[in-house]
Structures are given as structure tokens and as C-alpha cells.
Write a structure and sequence with these properties.
Elements lengths: L1 H23 L6 E12 L9 E5 L7 E9 L2 E6 L8 E6 L4 E4 L4 E9 L3 E8 L4 E8 L7 E11 L6
Antiparallel strand pairs: 1-2, 1-3, 1-10, 3-4, 4-5, 6-7, 7-8, 8-9, 9-10
Length: about 160
């Protein structure tokens, strides 16, 4: 009887661990449009300017800053400026190139991009709260040295990306 109980316990633990592992290998099916809620910027502590600037989205019709679309279960399609053709850029991000934190409370992915001029851009997206953040870090030797944070609220998209 003990062997049967131990076997059932092992099967339950293995099944649970396998299900959690499997769910972290697939992104939730979603297409969202993201609008900037606020942005803030400051220089590094070594900089002469200690001010913090803040910007919000005061436009009557806010601009879609990003569209995020799960193209297949393992690729997040990132489209910047989806409604402005002259600025539109898109690329895919594999789940294997993102940091993931999927648990009972949230489903968050994050990734890093290297931009020209020594700028590092960090993204994070919360599938549960539909929040996208973008953090730009410009090297101290850059004329735009400092840290800039954009917080975007996302809504389920009604239009499929083209």
C-alpha cells in the first residue's frame, strides 16, 4: 500500500511539474495595442542635471505605441508604431530569448535589445495586467546619457496586425 501511495504521490508531483514546465514554454494567445500612460527621464547620478522630466499622453486620440501579438505559441511579434507606416517596425521575439516568470499570480516576460549609440532597451510585459514597460539606458558617454522609463497600458486589439 505504501508503494502505491508513493507511486501516486510521485506521479502527481511529476504531472504537476510537467504541466508547469509546459505552460512556461507557450505564450498566452493575445493581440494587444499599447498606449503610453507616462514617461519619465533622468540623468545618471554623475550627471550635472538632477532634474526628472515627466511626460503623459495628452493627445485627444492617443497614439498606439506598440502592438504585441503572439504569432504562434512561442513567438511574440513586437510592432512599434503600428498605425504610422513611416515609423512602423516589427520583429519577432522567441520565448527562448526572453526571461519568463509564469506562476499563479502573474505571467510576465522580459527581454533586452541593443540599440545604436550604446543604448540598452529593456522591455517587460505582464499578460495578466496588460502592462508594457520600456526602459532605455543610454551610456554615460552618450549625449542622451540617462535612464528613460515608458509605462504603457494595453487593450485587447480589435484589428489584426498586417
Amino acid at each position: 500500500m505504501r508503494a502505491l501511495a508513493a507511486g501516486l504521490l510521485a506521479l502527481t508531483v511529476f504531472s504537476s511539474a510537467h504541466a508547469q514546465h509546459r505552460s512556461a514554454e507557450a505564450l498566452p494567445a493575445v493581440t494587444v495595442d499599447c498606449y503610453r500612460t507616462l514617461a519619465t527621464k533622468t540623468q545618471f547620478p554623475e550627471g550635472a542635471d538632477k532634474d526628472v522630466s515627466i511626460a503623459n499622453e495628452d493627445l485627444a486620440t492617443p497614439l498606439k505605441r506598440y502592438r504585441l501579438q503572439v504569432a504562434d505559441k512561442t513567438t511574440l511579434k513586437v510592432i512599434s508604431d503600428p498605425d504610422r507606416d513611416s515609423f512602423r517596425e516589427e520583429h519577432g521575439k522567441s520565448i527562448w530569448k526572453m526571461t519568463r516568470d509564469f506562476n499563479d499570480k502573474h505571467q510576465i516576460v522580459a527581454w533586452r535589445e541593443e540599440l545604436p549609440g550604446g543604448i540598452v532597451r529593456l522591455f517587460s510585459f505582464d499578460f495578466a495586467d496588460l502592462l508594457l514597460t520600456r526602459l532605455d539606458i543610454a551610456a554615460a558617454r552618450s549625449p542622451a546619457a540617462g535612464v528613460e522609463l515608458h509605462v504603457m497600458k494595453c487593450n485587447k486589439a480589435t484589428v489584426v496586425a498586417h
